[in-house]
Design goal:
binds pyridoxal-5'-phosphate; binds zinc ion; Rossmann fold; 392 residues
Length: 392
């Protein structure tokens, strides 16, 4: 599909822009940005043609705004959606499915965004990607960038789990350690691009990071042969959540599905800005985050306004789980299904357990397991010590 089919639309004021690598947020809406709230003027990728039918033999990559030939050859996506029989029996949900995103090349769902960003950079003849990240986004961009022949410069705030740091370095990323928070790292990464060029891959800020993640829900529908009833997804910045909705919206547009499923955003009790905003209708003053699930630990969710509007539009909901729930869910998933998820992924299962009594057991429920457990061994050890048995 040709890229001219696509354009950006501001998710707040509806202004329309041509796709352009230097354009990140709507310049008009960005003016009202306050430091302590989610990003203003996030741009949404939109198709400009009339709704039609998908070509025979289509694949989810054909729904992305960059032509297939620009994508690197690393196999991102097409992760397994599978039936965990023992888990199904244990919890009496015979139609529960696991979408295992740890099967992505760098071990997390972030690869879907990095994949599209890499293709977009190559198409525009840009050879350097710059981002701030506390973990998976950085290791993902480093790995996918390596496959694409791109230089990746990563601004790192304080302690990220060691494995994610090692991954980024092993893939050859250039590391800049920042003495400060994610916000400081973020600002420095933008300053670098202003001065030296390159493409920013900051999450939510670069519209392609939201768009790239939509392939996961498109795959779920294709693998299931129908639309699921409920999808559980953990949320920090809310980019995955927004991407999941974008995928279902695309399939609605092409008449592949006739409804968007109930999407449940699962947040850690110590980092639940989106949940609070759903209840309040707006984002209030940020609360310092505190959770063992580092990948969903954020003070101000970058994609918050966008995600909140999507939840409202599609009548999605949110649920909060504490660290104990997460660590116990992580163990139960591992022991009953054989799937070792990092805490942020296991949170989806913890959220399901919390809401289970409100869901019809004959529903088709999909849990999105967003990242691999070996990325954060320390948390798993803590879980074993506190709620199981650990022998060292
Ligand atoms: C980034 C990430 C999340 C949360 O995604 P957001 O877009 O920040 O909401 C969840 N799980 C894992 C493993 C992640 O890397
Ligand atoms: Zn705008």
């Amino acid at each position: 599909m040709e890229q001219t089919l696509f354009r950006y639309r501001c998710s707040e004021c509806d202004a329309v822009f041509q796709l352009e690598p230097a354009l990140m947020v709507c310049p008009t809406c960005a003016v009202s940005q306050r430091a302590t709230e989610p990003l203003r003027g996030i741009l949404e990728v939109e198709r400009s043609d009339a709704p039609g039918e998908l070509p025979p033999g289509w694949d989810s990559i054909d729904l992305l705004p960059v032509e297939r030939r620009w994508f690197p050859s690393i196999p991102v996506g097409n992760t397994p959606l599978w039936r965990p029989e023992r888990l199904r029996a244990k919890i009496s949900f015979p139609y529960l499915y696991l979408k295992d995103e740890s099967a992505n090349p760098t071990g997390s769902l972030k690869d879907r965004a990095s994949f599209l960003v890499a293709a977009w950079a190559r198409k525009n003849d840009i050879d350097r990607i710059v981002l701030a990240s506390t973990g998976n986004a950085g290791s993902s961009m480093a790995g996918v960038g390596a496959a694409a022949g791109l230089r990746v410069r990563l601004y790192l705030p304080a302690a990220a789990p060691e494995a994610k740091l090692v991954q980024a370095q092993l893939y050859g990323a250039e590391l800049v350690r920042v003495d400060g928070t994610y916000d400081t790292a973020y600002d420095q990464s933008l300053a670098y691009v202003r001065e030296h060029g390159g493409l920013s891959r900051n999450t939510a800020y670069n519209p392609m990071t939201i768009e790239g993640k939509k392939t996961v829900s498109i795959e779920i529908v294709r693998q299931l042969g129908r639309v699921p009833d409920v999808v559980f997804v953990s949320a920090g910045d809310g980019v995955i959540l927004s991407g999941v909705y974008r995928g279902f919206e695309d399939l609605m547009r092409f008449g592949v599905i006739d409804r968007v499923p109930l999407v449940v955003a699962v947040q850690a009790a110590g980092s639940c800005a989106i949940h609070r905003a759903r209840l309040a209708g707006r984002f209030e003053e940020p609360v310092a985050s505190d959770t063992i699930a580092d990948s969903i630990s954020v003070d101000v969710p970058r994609c918050g306004w966008f995600a909140l509007r999507r939840l409202q539009r599609h009548k999605g909901t949110t649920v909060v789980v504490d660290d104990r729930d997460i660590l116990i869910a992580q163990q139960e998933l591992a022991r009953t299904a054989g799937l070792f998820s990092e805490p942020a992924g296991a949170a989806a299962y913890a959220g399901f357990l919390k809401m289970r009594d409100e869901i019809d057991p004959d529903c088709r429920v999909v849990l999105l397991l967003t990242g691999h457990g070996l990325k954060d061994v320390r948390s798993a050890v803590k879980g074993l010590r506190d709620h199981g048995k650990y022998d060292d």
